[in-house]
């Protein structure tokens, strides 16, 4: 098996994503990835020391992709903070729901990582809370929101919408009324953030 | 085996609770219950047509017991609606956490029933939302809260605190800061409910 200079980490991650899509997180092996690339499994291990490390790196890459549109919403100062907060929360829900329905095996991988408290999942959550902090801090600056500690408030908002982003609640995401229910939470939280 | 007139449904439910505590929801059988009572399994089936029906009846009984202190909080008009709402939500969390640590096998049974969308679990949630509705409606009457639809608002409040009552989040309940995090959600929701 040739393992020429073409085999870089990105190539391996793309192949792993395909293998995870086909076999799911429980059955996919490093050998499957090596076979898909036509290389020895030693060539894969040279880049990623274990199956866990490889799965973590794949998750880190596609969680990053999933965050891009959310980062764009968080920094879009053309939208007033209250509406930006609502847009961000509904965009996150739409993205999670789309991943679940369009890419169920990758969603299952994400679910495993969440349950295992992986650093990829923890870093992802930290990045999402930072988005919320930016929106809330902008609202405090503009006088739209009151918050003594935007980071703490960001955590509280994330926590209060857990039913719409935590994978444990995925079975409820396709029920009629899920979007309306999230909108109602957004309205109550935004009201709660307004200064008096 | 004698199956005298002493064998009533309550006696069977108490024995089933003990069997569930000892064996857990996966391993407990109707035969275990019959053995514990010294009766034939036919005697048990005379009251409960299946293992599922028996498990459901047990859950219904202890969910009812768990609701009693919450019903007392919901109707305690000596507490102003805002503080009553906070007390109710923190009492629910304390009760769930106590069940998890003191009665893990019964908690596991509850978890199974929730995942199976049993009518006992659904009725329990409906009763809890009715408690919240009473508190919110009292707040609207007293001018402490604004809500065009107290039942819908009750659902939203229940939904926004799901991390502190849904069994899927049980692994996070013993983490330091869980109580403080729930208090922060309560504060934000109560602020959101105040009229302007």
From TrEMBL, chains A, B:
Superkingdom of origin: Bacteria
Keyword flag Transcription: yes
Gene3D superfamilies with a match to the protein in the record: Tetracycline Repressor, domain 2 (1.10.357.10)
Keyword tags: DNA-binding, Transcription, Transcription regulation
Residue ranges for the DNA-binding region feature of this UniProt entry: 29-48
Pfam families in the cross-refs: TetR_C_27, TetR_N
Domain HTH tetR-type: 6-66
Annotated SUPFAM superfamilies: Homeodomain-like, Tetracyclin repressor-like, C-terminal domain
Record's protein name: TetR family transcriptional regulator
